[in-house]
């Protein structure tokens, strides 16, 4: 599981292109390879991440599925030491994504967490994340 998920941890994540100094896992999210991440690119990646951890395909990450997600983020952060991955361990913590506190994180809640994160980091409000946005 370790090798398949490094990019997902940057979501709790630059202008010059973000990728000038970024690790390879971030480049994989930049679908058009223009050096910037749009919300659409991140949303596509987030959808794939969600599907990966939603083992029973019920549209929500239950406690065991979210625990696996937590563990994968923590392992990737430990392995790479990348600042964005280290921040994602806390940034995507269950208490930040389970908006209605029902013990499950739905696709909508997961998307809302990404939306809030994107808006926070899109400093110049151009709809793209580049190196200057971090």
Please provide the ordered H/E string of secondary-structure elements.
Answer: HEHEHHHEHE
Helix content: 40-55%
Strand order of the largest sheet: 1-4
Anisotropy-based shape: globular
* Separation of the first and last Cα atoms: 28 Å
Largest sheet: 2 strands, antiparallel
Strands, count:
4
Give me the Rg, rounded.
14 Å
Low-confidence spans: 1-19
Structural class: mainly alpha
Strand content: 5-15%
What's the mean pLDDT score? 79
Number of helices: 6
Short characterization:
The protein is mostly helical and 134 residues long.
How would you portray this structure in words?
The protein is mainly alpha-helical and 134 residues long. The protein is 49% helix and 6% strand. The chain has helices spanning 24-27, 39-53, 63-80, 83-91, 94-97, 107-121, and strands spanning 37-38, 60-61, 105-106, 128-129. The strands form two sheets. Strands 1-4 form a two-stranded antiparallel sheet. It has a two-stranded antiparallel sheet with strand order 2-3. Helix 2 (39-53) packs antiparallel against helix 6 (107-121) and helix 3 (63-80) packs antiparallel against helix 4. The protein is globular, with a radius of gyration of 14 Å.
Please describe the topology of this protein.
Blueprint: H1 24-27, E1 37-38, H2 39-53, E2 60-61, H3 63-80, H4 83-91, H5 94-97, E3 105-106, H6 107-121, E4 128-129
Helix pairs in contact: 2-6, 3-4
Question: Which features does this protein show?
Answer:
134 residues; mainly alpha; two-stranded antiparallel sheet; 6 helices; 4 strands; globular; disordered N terminus
């Amino acid at each position: 599981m370790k090798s398949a998920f490094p990019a997902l941890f940057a979501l709790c994540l630059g202008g010059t292109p973000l990728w000038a100094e970024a690790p390879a896992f971030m480049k994989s999210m930049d679908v058009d390879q223009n050096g910037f991440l749009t919300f659409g690119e991140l949303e596509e990646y987030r959808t794939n991440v969600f599907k990966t951890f939603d083992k029973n395909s019920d549209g929500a990450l239950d406690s065991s599925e979210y625990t696996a997600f937590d563990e994968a983020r923590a392992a990737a952060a430990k392995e790479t030491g990348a600042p964005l991955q280290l921040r994602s361990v806390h940034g995507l913590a269950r208490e930040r994504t389970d908006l209605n506190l029902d013990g499950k994180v739905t696709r909508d809640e997961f998307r809302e967490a990404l939306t809030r994160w994107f808006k926070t980091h899109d400093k110049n409000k151009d709809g793209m994340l580049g190196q200057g946005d971090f």
